What we know:
By secondary structure, the chain is α+β, with helices and mostly antiparallel strands. The protein folds into two domains: about 20-90 and about 210-220 and about 240-325, 2-Layer Sandwich (Beta-Lactamase); about 90-210, no CATH class. It has helices at about 5-15, 40-55, 95-110, 115-125, 130-140, 150-160, 165-170, 195-200, 210-225, 230-240, 310-325, and strands spanning about 35, 65-70, 80-85, 240, 270-275, 280-285, 295-300. The chain has a seven-stranded mixed beta sheet with strand order 1-3-2-7-6-5-4, with helices on both faces. α2 (about 40-55) packs antiparallel against α11 (about 310-325). The radius of gyration is 20 Å and the shape is globular. The model is unreliable at about 1-25 and about 25-30 (pLDDT under 50).
Amino acid sequence: MNAELKGKWLFVACLLGTLAVSPLAQDKTKPVEPAASARLQKVVDGAARAALDKFKEKGLAEKNFAVTLIDLTDPARPERASFRGAEPIYPASVVKLFYLAAAHRWMEDGRLKESEELARAMRDMIVESSNDATHMVLDSLTGVTSGPELSPAELKKWGEKRNVVNRYYASLGYTVGPAGINVNQKPWCEGPYGRERQFLGPKFENRNKLTTDATARLLYEIVTGRAVSPERSRRMLDLLKRDFAGTSEDPDDQAHGFTGIALEAGTRLWSKAGWTSTARHDAAYLELPDGRRLVLVTFTTDFAKERDIIPTVAREVIKGVISDK
């Protein structure tokens, strides 16, 4: 067997051998919409107060973070609560979760061709949080690419194509627009150039944004096999699986630098975390040792250096959920 063919077989074997199997993704019952819960609202409000108290001297205010919690321990009766969950916030690389789900929907519908290179890009986008890989995925979804500036007429046509992901989520009932989410921008480290900078707007008014409510909804739909087929949900969960039991020299590692800090041994974690110079976010699905299953999404703004805000919220939420029997 030549080296090229051998490499392809190894790729397929690894892809098939690492597919995660989530109990909820296999559930045969149709998932229902999580209902607002007074019980969970007390838990979320308590976690928010604990964070505000702990970081009060450093200036943390309510405007600096948002939290959404979904308890799906009983798939037939999921519940939810949030703290500022409907506030549009710059999402850092958590937006990549939305591109991942859209890509699987496109492939499932035959609108996007599967390939080894696309599979590699989706893996690197989620596992390594690579921006370059994200660019390839978004280009594949929209059929447009980065490049030099465009004329106003050309930019309008280009923007219509780039907005296809927004239109997809709007069709699912997500609030898309000024008061909701925006998922039509590529993530950048040094800043966008050319048509990407044009599309962002003179005052960055078209930047990406998410709410913790929308992010929690998407993660809940992935976990329950509702966003796409259960098989594709398992593929996504495989990329989101985090091993926080070991150690990492990277303080911003997705498994060790966010919600994972707060978790005890025996907990299972799936997540997409991200950070910038101002933002620090985590969208996590947890399976606790006692059998509880939680989706917990926490966004922070202007406090990226305070790495313990997200773990503080997670600890308080878990403690509150466990004590409320």
